[in-house]
Amino acid sequence: MVLLSNIQTLPYSCFNNYTFYRSQWQSQRGCVGIGIRCGIAEPSGEPAPLGQKTKYNDGLFEKAFMTLFARKMEKFGASKKESDEKKKGWFDYDYDSFVDVSRKVMQGRSRLQQQQVVREVLMSMLPPGAPAQFRKLFPPTKWAAEFNAAITVPFFFWLVGPSEVVEVEVDGVKQKSGVHIKKCRYLENSGCVGMCVNMCKIPTQDFFTNEFGLPLTMNPNFEDMSCEMVYGQVPPPFEEDPVSKQPCYADICTIANPNSIVCPKLSAN
C-alpha cells in the first residue's frame, strides 16, 4: 500500500470517475480533509450488505494498479507452467485476478514467509532511497500522521474500497489520523482471514512502522468487514493482537478449516 513516490506522476484525468467531498480540517493550519466515494456500482453508492459482494465499476486507473501489484506478486505465486505462459496485458487483470495471485502466494508459505513476500513487493515498487526520504519528509509527528491518513483515502480506494478520515486518539491526543474503511474490498473478495492478516494488515503495519518510521496500526473488524487504520499508533506484537485468535470464515473462505479454533494461516508454521 505504498504509492506516495508515484503520486505526482498521476494524471488529473485519473480522477474523472470520482466525486470529491471536501470538509474543513484544522482550519487554523489551512489543511483540508478529503473524502472520496469509490466507483461503486451499487444503486445506493455504498458497499453491499454483509453476505453480498459489492459491485464496482473499475476503470483504467484501478486496473493499472491491479496489474502492477499482481505482476509484482506473480513471480512468487505462479507455477512454472504459468510463468512460461504469455503474460496478460496491462488491462486484462481485474480485482479477482489480483486476489487469485495473492491466494497463490499463500500456498506453501508460512505466515512470516507470506509477509516477507509482500514486503519485497512493496520495496520493489519504490525508487532507491525512498524509505530514507520518507523519514525526512514525514517524521513521526501528528501532522505526518494526519497527512498520510488523508492521502490513503483517495489513493487506495481501488484496493480497499471507500473510506473516510476519522478522528482517533493516539497517546491521549485526538487527531484526524484515522481512516475508516467501510467494507474492505480485499477481505470481502478473498473471504479469507489469513489473507487479510498476512497479506495486508501485518506487512503494511510493519512497512510503515519499520521502513518508513511512521507507526501504523490496522484494526480489521471481521464482523462487518470494516477496518480502521490509525497512523501514529504503534501496532501491538502479533501475539497480543486480537487478530491472532481469529477463526476462519467457515462459510465463505475456499481454504477454510471449520474444525480449527483459529485460522490455520495465522500459524507461524
UniProtKB/TrEMBL annotation:
It comes from the Eukaryota. Residues 158-240 form the Beta-carotene isomerase D27-like C-terminal domain. This is Beta-carotene isomerase D27-like C-terminal domain-containing protein. Pfam families: D27-like_C. InterPro entries: D27-like, D27-like_C. It comes from Datura stramonium. Signal peptide: none annotated.
